[in-house]
Hints:
By secondary structure, the protein is of the alpha/beta class. 38% of the residues lie in helices and 19% in strands. It is built from 24 helices and 23 strands. The chain has an eight-stranded mixed β-sheet, with helices on both faces. The chain has a six-stranded parallel β-sheet with strand order 18-23-22-19-21-20, with helices on both faces.
Amino acid sequence: MIELKTPINKLTSVGSAISKKLSKINLLTIDDLIFHYPFRYDDYSEVLTIDKIKAKKTGTIKAIIKSISTHSSFNRKMSITEALVSDKTDSLKIIWFNQPYLTKKFTKGQTVYFAGKIIKNKTHGFQLINPSYETPLDNKNPIHTGRLVPIYPLTSNITQKQIRFLIKQTIPVIQKINDWLHRDIRATNNLIDLSFALEQIHFPSDKKIMTKAIKRLKFDELFIIQAKNHLIRQNIKHKQAHKIKFYLAKTKKFVKELPFKLTNAQKRSAWEIINDMGKDNPMNRLLEGDVGSGKTVVAGLAILNVILNSQQTCYMAPTEILAEQHFNTFSNLFKNFSFKIALLTSNSIKTNFKKKITKIELIKKLAQLDIDLIIGTHALIQPIIKFKKLGLVIIDEQHRFGTSQRQHLLEQTVSPHFLSMTATPIPRSVALTLYGDLDISIIDEMPKGRKKIITKIIKPIEYKKTYEFIKEEITKQKQAFVICPLIDESDKLGAMSVKQEYINLTTNIFPNLKIKALHGKLKSTTKEKIIKDFLAKQIDILVSTTVIEVGIDIKNASIMLIHGAERFGLAQLHQLRGRVGRGEDQSYCFLMLDTDSITATERLNALISTNNGFELAEKDLEIRGPGEIFGTQQSGFITSLKIAKLTDVKIIALTKKIAKQLFYQSPRLEKYPLIKKKIQASIMSTHLE
C-alpha cells in the first residue's frame, strides 16, 4: 500500500535507473510526485475526425492503422517510424522519431486514439508528428489523449507519458488526503477541497474545474507564507533584546561631520531603525534602496548607536570583495572614534587597530567584547565564533544567504536586533510575500549632485564607434567595465564570453591599454587583487561577468558596456549600470545587442527611459518572472512557489488579510490546529535548507 512518504521506486515501472533520474528534479517520494504540478496543458479534449483536425491543427483523433513501419534516416543517426491511419473522413500520415518499438506495439487494423499538433509539409502534405496515443481500452480513463493533457517540468530521458503514468498511480493516495484548511475559510472564499484540487490539477475534467484547482493550490502556497510570516513576527515579539539607547548629540555630531548631506529618505529610514532598536524586543527590518541611494551610511548610524551602547555588531556580506570594501568604508566612516573594527573572510583577517592578528586572537577578542564591529562573509557562521554582547546583525543582500545561515547568527541568549539590506528594488507584491515577516524601510531618494547615467542601445553596426568613444574616455583618465554573459566560449549559446572579449580587446582593439579579466572561477585572492588594482587606477578596463553586480564601488569608473544585454533581466541590468555614475563625472551605460530583435529593443527601452529601479523591477516581474529581479533564481527563496506567481496580487492580498484575521481570532492558532501544524512543518523544512 502506497502512502505520502512512500519512496517513488515502489510505484509500477520505477526501477533504480528511473528513480535516479527522477531524483534530479527532487521527485523522491509519492508526495513529491503529487505536488509536482503541470506548468501548462495541451487541449486535446475534443475527439475530432481527420478532416476536422486538419482544419483545427490540434486535438485528438480516433483512427484505424492501415500500415506502420520503421526505417533509418538518411544519415542513420535516428530511426523514423511512419504510420498511415484513416477514419471515415480521410487519411493521415503519423511520424515518430526514435521509437522503433511502436511497430510491435501497434498492428494493422488496430483502432487507436492519437493526440497532437498537425503540421503541413510542402512535399508530404499533412502530418501528425510524435503524437501521444492510447487504445480505446485505455481511453475509458484517458491521461494522454481526449482531454486537457498536463505538461510537466522534466529531466533528461524522462517523458511526459512516464510522469503522467506515475501520477495516475497516486490518485488513491490523493483521494485520502485530509484538508488542513478550515472549512469556514474554504466556504467563505469559494475554495474547493484539497484532495479534489490535487486530482484536478493533474487530470482536469474541464477548464472551469482546472481554474478552481489552480486557485485553491495558489491560495495554499501563498497563505502558508503569509501565516508563517505572522508566526515569525509573533515569536520575535516574545523574544528579549537589549534596548539600544539613542545618543542624539553624538549622532548629530557624526552626521554633521559627514562629507555629504543626508537625504530625507536616509534620515527617515535611520530614525525607523533607531526607534526599533530602542525597544526590548528584537528589530526585524529590511532596508531597501536603489543602487547608490546611500544604505551604507544609514547602517552606519545604527552601528554607531549600538557601539555607543557597549554592544557589538556583526555585518555579513555575500562576497569577500564586498566584505573588504565595507571594512574599508566603516574604518573610514568611524575614523574619529576609537571603535575596534575587524574583517574575517576565508582568506583575510584584518583589524583597524593591529597590523596582523591570528584567527584565534580575533575569536578571543570577540568573546571578550574587544571588537565592536566585525565584517565578514559566511566565515562568520561558525560554532567557534561567540559574541560577548551581540546587539545588531546586519545582512547585506539577504536573499543570497540560506535561511538556516541567517538563523545561526540570531540564536543568541538575548536576541540581537536584525537588519537586512538589499540594493535590489523589490516590487511590492514580492516584498509582501517573501519579506512579510520584516518591517520595511525604503530609501526612495538619490543623493543630490549625481548626473543621470546616459544609457544607449548599441547594435552590431555601431560596435566600432562605441569602442572608439571608450578609448577617448580612458585618455581622460576614466575607467570602464565590460560585462559578458559567459566565462568560456559556447557554440550553443553564441554569446560573448569574458575570455573571448579579453583576447579581442587586448589583441585587436586596445592593445596599449591595461586590461584585466575577472570571473567566478578565479581564486578569491586573485579576484581581490584585481579589484584593488582597478580601485587604484592600475587597470583601465575590467572585463567581467556579473560577479561585480552588487556593491563594487569604483568612483572613477564612468563606462559600463554590457554584451548580450537582451539576455539579462531589466533589474539586473540596472544593478550593473549602478556600478558607474558614483562620482561627479558624466557616466555611460552601453547595451550591446547580439540580435536586431524588435522585442529585445522595446524591452531595453524601459532601461533608457527610467533610472528608477523600483519601476524596472515591476516591469521585470511582469515580463520575465521573480527570478530575474535578483539576477538568478535563489535556492529556497522563490523556488518554494510551485504554482503561485508573484503577479497573483489579488490572491496575495487575500491570503495576507485572512492570515491576519486568523491570528487576531486565535493568536496561538489554538482554534486552527491543522493550520498551525502545517505552518510549523513549513518553518521546519525552511530551516533545514
